[in-house]
Design brief:
11 helices; 244 residues; mainly alpha; rod-shaped
Length: 244
């Protein structure tokens, strides 16, 4: 740029001596305009460094928004599930959310983990006679179910009308006084409140589970599943590769 200005100055001086006044004035204006435009234009180095600085800034912003490519900022790979040769499952008895759980975990879950029991049954179960079952394991071990299940099981083996004379067989501690002399088959047809410890108002609570008699309580599929899960949970090892 300094060389061009120098040349222009020489030409301007020559015009002063060899041209008319009008041409001299016109050239003066042209020289002023040209000189003004030259000093307004920034040098290439400035543009270059500005562009470079802009590029650096953009890279910095990009780095700040996305983070540097570092192992700590990269998504961790999903841990692969441990593959085993075991094929057992109880998917048809439990909700989808519990299909990957162990017997132990399912046993500790609320009763709604069983397929077919809605979430509201968790609260409904708390109203059942004490000890009210709050988990799958507690439902499987609920004493009234256990007693009713035993009555149902042996009622099928009862030989009606052939009780041995003088036999003292009874389940008086499980039944209300009014029903102590009945056969096992007759007991199965009684409401659940015939079991000692279950009040009559609890019949309505059990009816919400479609359990209306001692026989139905003993055959309650959810309690039977729960009992089986509870039993197998006791046979389960925390380490699947371990045997005991």
């Amino acid at each position: 740029m300094s060389f061009i200005v120098f040349v222009m100055c020489i030409l301007y001086i020559l015009l002063m001596f060899f041209t008319s006044t009008l041409i001299y004035i016109i050239c003066t204006y042209i020289f002023i305009i040209f000189f003004f435009l030259m000093i307004r234009r920034p040098p290439r180095s400035t543009l270059s460094s500005s562009s470079a600085a802009s590029d650096v800034y953009k890279r910095q912003v990009s780095t700040q928004s996305t983070g540097p490519l570092h192992p700590s900022n990269m998504a961790e790979p999903v841990e692969k599930k441990q593959k085993t040769s075991h094929t057992m499952n109880i998917n048809s008895a439990i909700d989808k959310a519990f299909e990957g759980k162990t017997f132990t975990e399912i046993a500790a879950a609320p009763i709604s983990a069983l397929q077919g029991l809605a979430d509201w049954t968790d609260n409904a179960a708390e109203k059942l006679p004490a000890p009210a079952p709050k988990t799958v394991a507690e439902l499987g071990k609920w004493k009234y179910f256990v007693r009713a299940s035993a009555i149902v099981e042996l009622a099928a083996k009862e030989d009606e009308g052939h009780r041995e004379e003088g036999s003292k067989m009874n389940i008086n501690s499980a039944l209300d006084k009014a029903h102590e002399g009945k056969s096992l088959k007759e007991v199965c047809e009684l409401p659940c409140s015939a079991l000692q410890g279950i009040a009559e108002h609890s019949d309505e609570d059990l009816a919400g589970f479609h359990v209306g008699t001692i026989g139905k309580l003993g055959q309650w599929k959810f309690a039977k599943w729960a009992a089986a899960i509870s039993t197998l949970a006791e046979m389960e090892n925390a380490d699947i590769g371990e045997s005991r």
